[in-house]
Hints:
about 0% strand
Amino acid sequence: MTDSPFIQVALQITLAVLTVLLFPTAYRLYRGPRIADRMLAMDLITTLLASIMVVYAILENQHLLVDIALALSALSFIATLGVGRYVSEGRVF
Length: 93
């Protein structure tokens, strides 16, 4: 599937763009100013990391990384629900 040089270059560019996008998101996580901004930045960071893992898995033909990215996405979703409930109601459970 990734034998074409065009696909290889496109995937490498995609990987570079996703990696660069981590920096402004990390800045938003650090600066805030509100807890909702930080929560959104953390959710975006985990989405970017899962995307980076999937693109890398395609490049290197490693299927295990896709499963790990799926698990990371599931944990991120559960954590986002917990933090969102804590922000809105003041309790997690």
